[in-house]
Amino acid sequence: MLKTLLVASAAIFAMCHGHLPSLAGLFVLAILLSLAYEYTSSLWTTMLIHAGFNSVSVVAAINWPHLG
Length: 68
Prior knowledge:
Number of helices: 3
Largest sheet: none
Number of strands: 0
Oligomer: single chain
């Protein structure tokens, strides 16, 4: 049951971003965010991971625009 919910919420998270090329990466991120929350019971952990992911994405987009 928990695995099904984890996969379903990860898929919804990835699809809500509406960017097909990053679907797989966002799906993996959502799984990691879910596991981090389950392990720590803290939204702060997930927010910091999400912010770090976004920061890396912005730096990559600025430095290597041809990849996106």
